Amino acid sequence: MTAMTRFSDWFWLKSVDPALANAQYGEVQGQIPLLYALLSVNAVAVAYTHHGAAPAWMTVWVPAALVAISTVRLFTWTRRSERSVAGAEAIRLLRRTILLGSFIALAYISWSLKLGQYGNEHQQTHVAIFIAITVIGCIFCLMHLPQAALAITAIVTLPYLGYYVSSGDAVYNAIGFNILLVTLVMIRVLLNSFGGFNKLIRSQAETERLNGEITKLAHTDMLTDLPNRRLFFSEADSRVERCRKAGQELALGVIDLDRFKAANDTFGHLLGDQLLEAVGGRLREVFKCRGLVARLGGDEFAFVVEGDTARSMDLAGQACQALSEPFPLGDLTVSIGASCGIATTADIPGGSRALYDGADYALYKAKSERRGFVTLYSPEHERRIRSDRDVEAALLAADLNAEMAVHFQPIACVADGRIMAFEALARWDSPRLGRVPPDTFIPLAERAGIIHRLTLALLAKALACMENFPAGAKLSFNLSAHDLTCHETVVSIMALVRRSGIEPSRLIMELTETAVIRDFDTADASIRLLRSLGLQIALDDFGTGQSSLSYLHRLPIDKVKIDRSFVAGSREAAGRELLSAVVAFCKSMRMRCIAEGVDDASQLAFLRSIGCDAFQGHLLAEPMPIDEVVTWRRRRELGATEPSAR
Ligand code: C2E
Ligand code: CA
Ligand code: CA
Fold this sequence. Notes:
Elements: H1 3-11, H2 18-50, H3 56-80, H4 88-115, H5 121-141, H6 146-166, H7 170-219, H8 229-246, E1 250-258, H9 260-267, H10 269-287, E2 291-297, E3 300-306, H11 309-324, E4 327-329, E5 332-334, E6 337-344, H12 352-369, E7 374-376, H13 379-397, H14 400-403, E8 404-413, E9 419-430, E10 434-436, H15 438-448, H16 451-465, E11 474-478, H17 481-484, H18 487-500, E12 507-511, H19 513-518, H20 520-532, E13 536-542, H21 548-554, E14 559-562, H22 564-569, H23 573-588, E15 592-595, H24 601-610, E16 614-615, H25 626-637
Parallel strand pairs: 6-7, 9-11, 11-12, 12-13, 13-14, 14-15, 15-16
Antiparallel strand pairs: 1-3, 1-6, 2-3, 4-5, 8-9, 8-16, 9-10
Helix pairs in contact: 2-3, 2-4, 2-5, 3-4, 4-5, 4-6, 5-6, 5-7, 6-7, 9-10, 10-11, 12-13, 13-15, 16-18
The protein binds ligand C2E and calcium ion (CA) (2 copies).
Ligand C2E binds near residues 425, 426, 439 and 458.
C-alpha cells in the first residue's frame, strides 16, 4: 500500500475504527457550532469594516449568504447533539463534515481574498488577520477531525499565501510567512494530539472489552457456559418483578441430577465434567428462547419460565425427559436422570429466593418420592420439610447414648409358639421433640450422614440386653441400606459383635432391598462378610419392592420377613392365596419365612395352615423395653396368653 493510498484511506475515514469514529463524532459535535459562530462573527466584523469601501454585494449580500449558511449548519449541529449516532452513521456524518467544511472554507476564502482588494491598508490588514485568526480557530475546533482541519487549512492557506506573496509587499510577505509557520506548527500539534486521542480511545475500547469479559466470566459457569448462580438470581429477580407488575405467572424450577455422584465416583471427575457439559447442552436446547436456564453449582441447575403452570410443568418435564436419555461420552454411555421441583408466583409471594426455597422443597419431595419427575410446590411439602429439618437438627445435636433406646418385639414359632428371637427396634425420646418414630428419624439420620454412628450405638445397646433373653433366643437387628454399603461400618459391626462375646449365630441382620439396589456388589460383599462370621441374614419387608425375586436368587439370604401388608391382606380370599403363594415360594427357595404384623388369631391360624415358620406382631407382643420383656416372659410362662400392654 503506497503512502498516498494510506493517506487517502485515512483522510476519507476508510479504515477508521468505529469506536474512534464515534469518539471523534462526539467531540466535534460540541465544537463545530462554536466554529460556525466564530466564522459568522468574524465575517460580520470584516464586512462591517469594509462597508462603503467595497461594493454592497460584497459587504452585505455575500456575507449575509455565508452567515446564513453558517447559522443553518450551527443549528443543524446543535440539534444533532440531542441524539446519539454511532458506527457507520457517525462515519457518514464525519465525511459530510469534511466535504461541507471544505466547500464553506472555499467560499469564505474566495470572498475574503476578493474583499482584500478593497479598502485602505488598515482594512486590508483586517482581512489578512481575519483569515489567519479564523484558520487557527478552525484548526482548534477541528482538533478531533484532523482530516477536515487539514482540508480547510490547505484550502485557505495556499490561496492566501499565493495571494499575499504575489502582492510583492514585504510586510504581507512576512505576514504570509508567519501564518504559514504558525499553521504548520499547529497542524503538527494537532496531529500529535489526535494521535494521543486515538490511543486513549483504543485503550478505552480495550478496557471496555476487558470489563465485558470480566463481567461475562463473573456471570458464566465455565464448564457449561450457562449463566451461573449470581446471574441467575439477579436475572430471576428482575423477571419476577416484571411478571408480578404485569399480572403474569412465572415459575422457577430446580433440577437435580439423579445418580450423578455415582457416575462421577465410578468414571472419574473428567467424565463427570463432560457429563455436566452435556447436561448443560441439553438444558440449553430445551429452554432455548423459552426461559432462562443456569447451573447453580455441582449437579444442580435451575430455570425460570414465564407463563402459566401448565407450560412450565411441560418444559420441566421435557428437561427431565431429555436428561433421562443416555449420554454417549467417548467410548462410554452413561445414564443418569433428573428430578425437578417447581414453584410459581401464583403459590409463593416474594422474590426469586422465596421461589427457589419453594422449588427446593418440591425437589426434595421429588427426590424422595418421585425420582425422575417434576413435582410442583405445595405448602404441605414446606411444612413437612421444615419439620424434617427440625428433626434433623435435633438428631445432629442428640446425645445418641442417652436419648436412644432399643425396644424388643418377640418373634415366635408359628407351630408351637416358642420364642425364637427378638427384633430390636430403635426408639428416640428427644428432650426437645418428644418421642420421634424410627420411620422418621432413620431416613433423616441416613441423610445427615450419622446413621453409622446410630447403628453402632443401637447395636451395642441391643447386644447388652441379650443377657435377659430366654436361652437360645436370637437378636434380629435392622441394618440401614447405608450401613451395608459402607465397608467401615460392616467391619465395626463385626468388631462390636466379637467384643460382646455373644455367639454370632445368635444374631440375625435384617436388611432391605434398598441396600442391594443402591450398590449390589458392595451389599453382596458385606452380606458374605457378615455370614463368614456366622451371622444370619434376613430380607426385611419382602414383597414391597419390585425386584425381590431376582435378589433372592442372587444373594446368600437365610430368612425372609414377609411384609405385614400381605398378612393384613389375608382377611380376603385373594390375599390369602397371595400369602400362601409367597410362603410356598420361600419354602421352594429353602428359606425360612417370618410373617410380620400378625395382630389377630385368625391370621396366625392361616399362617399355620400354610406352613409359615415364624411370626411377629401385636397378637404376640408390641415392641417393649428390655425390663418389660422380662415380666412379659414371666407372665407368658405362667400361662397368660394376652399380648403385652405396651
Ligand atoms: P420394620 O423393620 O418392618 O419393623 C417392624 C415395624 O412394624 C415396627 O415399627 C413395629 O412396631 C411394627 N409392628 C410390629 N407388629 C405390628 C403389628 O402387629 N401391626 C402393626 N401395624 N405394626 C406392627 P417401628 O418400630 O415403628 O419401626 C418402623 C421401621 O423403622 C422398621 O420397620 C424399620 O424399618 C425401622 N427401624 C426401626 N428400628 C430400626 C433400627 O434400629 N435400625 C434401622 N436401620 N431401622 C430401624
Ligand atoms: Ca425389621
Ligand atoms: Ca419389616
